Design the sequence.
DNA sequence: CCTGAAAACAGACCCCC
DNA sequence: GGGGGTCTGTTTTCAGG
């Protein structure tokens, strides 16, 4: 399942991350190759799951999503059943953009994007009514300093 | 600068978020319109900045980026100069995928994606050597439960 | 603002190197 | 595994309702 990526593959990934609407010829030019090899490598990396979804980045403000919260969650429950319910809830909620299970004191972190504080409270109330939670801290973002989907691509090993 | 988005626009945005590689005909079919109007709306929304970058989602594991940290930062410095330096540092660092200035006790939160704990420490050392920071808590992700770039699109007002 | 056709263009697949 | 050409389908443009 693990694919070996050479320098050319990595350059192609960098170009696709930067702008997936580029033509094969453009990408080929920038990475110093030509159409066919670039196309073959992209196809292989798609099949291998290295390249996932092609998508578009939208402006949250333009959609009226002015509030972004990071939510730190502590729980006392650690049974499989509770966890299953909790994960289901998170995945079903489109305002939850990210959710991670953590090591240490804090059990989970969420990133939640909503129109306003009121909408966050609706989410919060819905969440705690569905699953028992010990402690919640919400951190409100005042300013998005940086937000990128582009992963840092390390050199080939 | 704020554009008015009707239901059709919102449906188109939903489709583009889900899969930006769909053809205009496919999108048109799904949203109940046809090629040209869909194309005109997409063009307008691009110009207005509602639609940004077209990109590709890569698998962090396939690139050997196995460690994801959320970093909570408290600082005692709040001068413009310090802040400028801090922001520059964050923006220059490709392993920082997200950075927000927060309201409340904690001043900043970062999301940092790196190959391993060692690489995180390198980042941490570099950061504290460049700017004075009062207190740092790193939260290590054990499991990515959910990660999406798709914003929840609220109905038209 | 939408429909439908026409022109320009890029992606997918081929054979040759 | 790369280079170049060709065919097919899609994007983009435009005249007209």
Sequence:
């Amino acid at each position: 399942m693990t694919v070996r990526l050479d320098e050319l593959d990595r350059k192609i990934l960098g170009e696709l991350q930067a702008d997936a609407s580029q033509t094969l010829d453009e990408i080929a030019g920038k990475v110093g190759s030509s159409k066919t090899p670039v196309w073959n490598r992209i196809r292989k990396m798609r099949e291998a799951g290295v390249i996932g979804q092609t998508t578009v980045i939208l402006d949250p403000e333009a959609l009226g999503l002015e509030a972004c919260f990071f939510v730190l969650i502590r729980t006392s429950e650690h049974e499989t059943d509770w966890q299953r319910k909790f994960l289901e809830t998170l995945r079903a909620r489109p305002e939850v953009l990210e959710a991670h299970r953590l090591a240490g004191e804090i059990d989970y972190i969420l990133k939640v994007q909503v129109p306003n504080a009121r909408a966050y409270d609706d989410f919060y109330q819905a969440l705690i009514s569905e699953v028992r939670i010990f402690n919640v801290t919400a951190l409100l973002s005042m300013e998005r300093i940086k937000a990128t989907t582009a992963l840092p691509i390390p050199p080939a090993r």
In short: Helices of chain A lie at 7-18, 24-31, 35-47, 80-92, 117-130. Residues 70 and 139 of chain A are 5 Å apart (CA to CA).
